[in-house]
# Entry
Amino acid sequence: MTRVPSRLQGDRGSTLPIYIWLTGILLFAALAFFAFAQAASARNGAQSAADAAALAAAQSARDELMDRMGEDIAGGDDWLHWLTGEGFENQGEHAAAAARLAADNDAGVVGGPDPAEVNGHPGYWVEVQTNYTVGDTIIPGTENDRAKAHATAVIEPRCDMPVDADLKKALQLTCDGQDIEIDPEDFQPADLPDASALFSVHLAD
# Structure
């Protein structure tokens, strides 16, 4: 019978604890990486929900601007001031729009939507929190943590404001190089261009 030298047996015996120790380190590193990945995924989800909610509030405000401008054109009132993008008032409708988009992204609004101003343009700021938690990880307490994020969406006018315009006559607007004519004497709400032609809605940089 072949005998294993005692020196080799000793080498094997000393290698086993090192192997177990290295395996434990690798396992811990893998679990830690998974925990950070879960947290990053939750943050990304929260940010997507915040972006969607802010855009929804701003788009709802833009729709209000279009409706009120159409009413003033039809009524023969001053309607040019609506082209600045300011003056929306239906905060409840805009908040409801933000809440719907946040819910569609499995989150809830926890701050705002509040009117905001970016580079002189109006908009909305919103903060959301995910309905789901980060989940169980090796980091204590994460099983109850929910991700939060905030975003601001801006309503930016596209049209040049004409000076000393006669609001009772046909008026040609230039909106980002596109000519749009509005004739108050022969006007129907359907004559208004799409809202995106007069205002852009985008996330603040």
User: Anything to note?
Assistant: The longest strand covers residues 121-133.
